[in-house]
Amino acid sequence: MTVDYKAIAKDYADKYMEDLFTYLRYETVSAQGREIPETANFVRDTIIEAGGESEILGDLGGHPVVYGYFKAGANGNSDKTLLFYNHYDVQPEDPIDEWKTNPFEPTVVDGKIIARGVSDNKANFMSRIVAIKAIQDTEGGLPCNVKFFVEGEEEIGSPNIDKYLETYADKFSADACIWESGSKDSEERMVISAGVKGIAYFEASVVSADIDIHSSQAAVIDNGAWRLVHALATLRDVDNNITVDGFKEMRTQPTDVEKASVAAFPYNEAATIDTYGLKQPLITDGLDYSAQEALILYPTMTISGLLSGYTGPGTKTVLPRQAMAKIDVRLVPGYEPDKVYELLRNHFDNHGFKDVDLELLTGVKPFRTDISDPFTEDVINSAKEVYGEENVILELNSAGTGPMYGFGKYLNVPILGAGTGWVESGAHAPNENIRIEDYYQGVEHIIQLLHTFSKK
Ligand SMILES: [Zn+2]
After folding, report:
1. Which domain holds residue 386?
2. pLDDT tens for residues 82-100?
3. Deepest of 353, 415, 434, 454, by most Cβ within 10 A of its Cβ?
4. Ligand 1 centre and the CA of 90: distance in Å?
């Protein structure tokens, strides 16, 4: 007899929908420190109410981490433990004028739940709790042990997460980890991501004089804007190759398995151009690797902001005395923020730009799971049961950044994403939403996965 997980998932998701709505009503904006303890308590109580053990860990600073533990049932495989990583904090709701509904009053419109944090990341947490309840009720116990690590600082860069992972490595020990989220792409395929890029974020600035100067003096005096523009132009050539000394050499060469995985990853260049209304071709047109290789296997070098001189209406002739740029570098394995800082510093110095001040504002290391680990097949195969054979794709690592590195380092687990988002979920944006049908499937996927993973 086959069990109808699809029907069970929908039943339980509906039965506990009000719990999700309660969770979404907490205004857990970590950047503004709003309702942090209240939400952490809710997460703890939710785990306990579902039959687990839970504890709030706050001794290492920052917003607390909620620990959760569910023991395998009598017929389960108590040798295996699956860890879920989630975060209970959300992004600020700004710009509030662009919301069609109250961001902290979940509202159902056209089969979607609209609320701040619903896709990033509260529905994913609740889908996992609902899956656990469904299995416990219908099967009398879980097929394996389950743990939760639910933090409250993801949206502000997880500044304390590695301390908690290192100190509590035994408490959170597991055989594998399911990451906070996963999403369907524009073709309705579920994308399972096996890693993240890291980031090194810099501020570069130049002060060229004590005061702004009349621009007639440009005949003999340089200015801050030119100094900075020249320095920045040494970082990347007009064909978009990164030209920082020693930078290319730092990259870890991908394995054949990784290269094959990237080659098989679908990417629609025309859709990208259309979506953003690009006025120029993709920069990969001039590079000797493809767009999907660029997104997954290569670092980036981005000027994110520039500030200098007079930018008001009309004219003002002046030699600006200072200039500032924000630089964002996305990292793949082989790159670490501190080492990238050293390279950039040496590069500026060696190119005659000792006067360019450089500061590393924030850094996150990259992480990539070894996709030959059998856990990859568990996640992919269980997803195919739910989404269909053709509708599941593996992404070696996402082009974005997240705090995976510490989980790999201190817990030594393979990590893959799964979740309830879709291409228009609008994480961090107004009218953030998920589709209820995707939520049902998300619950079903976790039910399937717990069974697949637990097989001896
Ligand atoms: Zn986020």
Report:
1. 5-196+367-454
2. 999 999 999 999 999 999 9
3. 434
4. 7
